[in-house]
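User: Can you help me understand a structure? I only have the sequence.
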Amino acid sequence: MADHSEFLSICGREQSIQTLMQSPERIWQASKSHDIRHLRSAFACALHMHQPTVPAGPDGQLISHLQYMFDHSNEGDNHNAAAFAHCYRRMADLIPELIAEGCQPRIMLDYSGNLLWGLAQMGQEDILQSLRFLACDHQMQRHVEWLGSFWGHAVAPSTPIPDLSLQINAWQHQFARLFGDDALRRVRGFSLPEMHLPNHPDTLFALLHALRNAGYQWLMVQEHSVEQRDGTTLSAEQRYLPNRLVARSSTGDEVSMIALIKTQGSDTKLVGQMQPCGEALGLGPQSIGAMQVPSLVSQIADGENGGVMMNEFPDAFRQANRRIRDQGLATAALNGSEYLQALDDLQVSWDALPQIQAVHQHKLWTHLEDAAKPTNLNDAIDAMKTQDPSLAMEGASWTNDLSWVKGYENVLEPMQQLSASFHQIFDPKQAEDASITTTDAYRDALLHLLLLETSCFRYWGQGLWTDFAKEIHRRGESLLMAAQSA
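Assistant: Let's start by predicting it. Here is the structure, written out as tokens:
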């Protein structure tokens, strides 16, 4: 029943995309606009854009929620549909405008796979052409950095571990389908939906391992979701430096990845009013080992939600970039990969980066080491929760007051079940014949698995949204039954 359309691409090119992303070729060049040796500070801002896919079209077809908003403009804040659509394309106007004024603007863009597919489904060619311009034009590539994400906007801590790589790879397929391989190979930073970093050791280990395999070099994390290796909070200084996020599994294996720290909470006014620029102006250089480097303020916010982002952001973005231009300040707008490449050109020792881990992990490892008798990881977590009911080992995000697990068993249990069935049916087939991922049966089942893991079916509470999830689960089960009997 789902309308897959020619623009849906979530599987079938696993090996060629991995080869593309694992290329040792240098992708990013240090900025020619700024000599980082003369900068005291910089700021890197990202805009997060997402619309889920819902079974609410004609005859229950899968459509973008943006389409649903246009079709049901009298419900809730759906009257903002046109404003949202404008937000998705407006950077294609803002960036060239500021360049023509002699500014050096920068922005990072994080669009979910749901949204990218949905825009193509809707025939929003004006928006897609604007995004293609931002992704593919050589001049724009010096000013705009795209960040990878999960295709289905899943929250990592409650996503089945085998599906983390499926979500990551599906987004890469979708981006390459719309904008080409050359644009994809430039995507080296990663943005977690809801900034939700898992702190269960095995989930975090699997996530970083999957990101590394997919060719990503760094990710952005919320400062409250991480801690230093001794369990203390991040120092004021290291929030403005790259850190090395270390994940240790229950078997003792370790993997690490460079992390840029998003400071403060989820207030969209931070980016909407370009607070990162003002914050950066008050910072000076810092040391990584023996090297002096500019401090970096990293921020991300929804790019369309709320009056501040819809109405105030464009002028604030203009004003911040004009201020930097007019005052000749030793502060600049830089994107994440651009900043890291500049540090690499300075021969910064990456081994000298401060080491961090997910929040509460120091407490967990200490508990395990102090245990009177051997115990497994999950038993230790249960024991710690008994002692401290407020402790959460699901993860942490910019919505620390929200659990993505408690109260949503009616979504999570079917999600886990559908995932288990998917892997039980397709993993053996894929082991025998990798081309199974090019079949309609695999793609259709994968689509429903990715969709069921969308955070919106929990974030927006019980009712219509959980009904959407139940229908996607029902269709997914039907597809898996058909695949099993084929």
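Now, to help you interpret it: The two ends are 19 Å apart (CA to CA). Residues 409-432 form the longest helix (24 residues). Let me know which part you'd like to focus on.
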